[in-house]
Design a protein that fits this description.
The chain is mainly α. The protein has one domain. The protein has helices spanning about 10-35, 45-60, 65-79.
Length: about 80
């Protein structure tokens, strides 16, 4: 089904940006749910997930996408 009155659809570039943002942010969502969704988060679980966050941030410090790189830099400062 196609809505012919729909005029403002995302461009290919915006869909591409959305995919990059999703790939960057999804691990943070999953890690947050894992840690805070557990009644008893243990230190080994907590440590490994915090380490994963650091790795994700470090990997994106050299990202070719300027927006993701800037987000990673800001996140590193706060981390």
């Amino acid at each position: 089904m196609v809505d012919r009155s729909y005029e403002n659809f995302p461009s290919f570039e915006k869909w591409n940006r959305r995919e990059k943002m999703y790939q960057f942010l999804e691990p943070f969502y999953e890690i947050t749910n894992m840690i805070f969704g557990s009644s008893y988060p243990t230190s080994n679980l907590y440590f490994m997930e915090i380490w994963n966050i650091q790795l994700i941030i470090e990997e994106n410090l050299m990202n070719e996408d300027v927006i993701l790189k800037t987000m990673a830099l800001n996140m590193k400062d706060k981390f």
